[in-house]
Amino acid sequence: MTKPQPLPDMSSAAPSRTAKNENGEPAAPLPMPQPRSVFLGGLFMLALLTGCYVAAEIVLPIVLAFVLKLVFQPVMRVLIKLHLPRSVAALLIILLLFGGLFVVGNALSAPASDWAKRLSGSWPMLKQRLSFVTEPMMTMQGMLTHADGLTASAGPKPLTVALEGSRLSDRLLTDTRGFVAGMFQTILVLFFLLTAGDTFLRRLVETLPRFQDKRQAVEISQKIESDISAYLATITFMNGLVGFGTGAMMALCQVEDPILWGVTAFLFNYVPIMGPLICGVVFAMVGLLTKDGLLPALLPAGLYLLIHLTESVYVTPHFLARRFTLNPVLVILSLIFWYWMWGVPGAILSVPMLAIAKIICDQIPSLKPVGHFFEGDPHSEGPAAV
Where are the domains of the chain? Predict the structure, then answer.
């Protein structure tokens, strides 16, 4: 009877891939949080998210003002170095930001309203142009309706209840009032945040007992400000390039109002994943409405998606991967969750809030495993670096 041979040692043949720190040395194992801390932290997060959902009309303008404060804090410091008073510098920033938005919105409101009417009234023609897609869908829908009728015929017929809903004008008036009120709250909170400067940080440092805690609070604040400012500045610059390229592409394709479509691409690109998809559908509808033939009609949408994929997969990750990366799965989950919580503003704020949570977790030893879980792979292909 032969003796079993021992298994060969594979440690020398395949070196282990251990995590390394910034200096290239093997990183120390991350401390795992205690179960009680995880349970209490989960209860706190559940209560916090419930409060954000219930008090969305109050919390959302404050969060938006806080993120805008992080963006414009470097500009505020430059204006202060020019010997401008804090209140004057804050007022100048707010006037330039919201005044520019008002001017652009007022200039593009007329062509946007005209295109909205044209797209809403051209559904029969679009349905005819897309008959090769809609006919199989209608056939499947008819089969499902027939099957549903066969199963429902054996049971009692449901009662029909007519509900009288509110008129469209009342809903639009309510939404407009909510938007104006939220915008006013954002401007007011942003003004006082810019005027206060580092007052809250100084008060927090003064109340902390240990020097280590004071230094940690300052490091977290500086890291959040630098990383989020760099992220939003980079994203804004790249969105501007996408908007400029989209406008030029629409002009080359001889589509009316190319500036409108460039601004549309610029704004929708702030919403990860969903924004470019919606923008591509809109461009496809515009092409089907204005061009003859299927290939020329889909050319604007195809070129826009090519521009967006080049920006999101290759250009933007190249600039952001050195600072921080986020797991793309968590990015889409955060987008879905915050869109459900706060709508479109929540979708826009989803990535900055996820990045702020990762920065805080990376700076606190007990939360470093959570920050490591948020991190993406900067060397992987695709939009992992956000």
Answer: 55-122+184-197
